[in-house]
Design brief:
By secondary structure, this protein is an all-alpha fold. The longest helix has 23 residues.
Length: 60
């Protein structure tokens, strides 16, 4: 599928706005839930956990 240059802004808005709306819901997840798995390295770490770490800081 080709995206015309004029439609690129519309595509970005359609993707970015729902992600921005979902961010507060992600940051409401308790830190205890994220602390259940070992965190020695980031190999195999789900993307959602990495985003939560970026938003809330590392698990203590």
């Amino acid at each position: 599928m080709w995206i015309k240059r004029g439609n690129l802004a519309n595509v970005v808005q359609r993707v970015a706005l729902p992600l921005e709306a979902a961010l507060p819901m992600l940051t409401d997840i308790p830190r205890a839930v994220r602390g259940l798995a070992p965190r020695e390295n980031c190999v195999g770490t789900p993307v959602a956990e990495l985003l939560l770490d970026a938003a809330l800081g590392p698990v203590a």
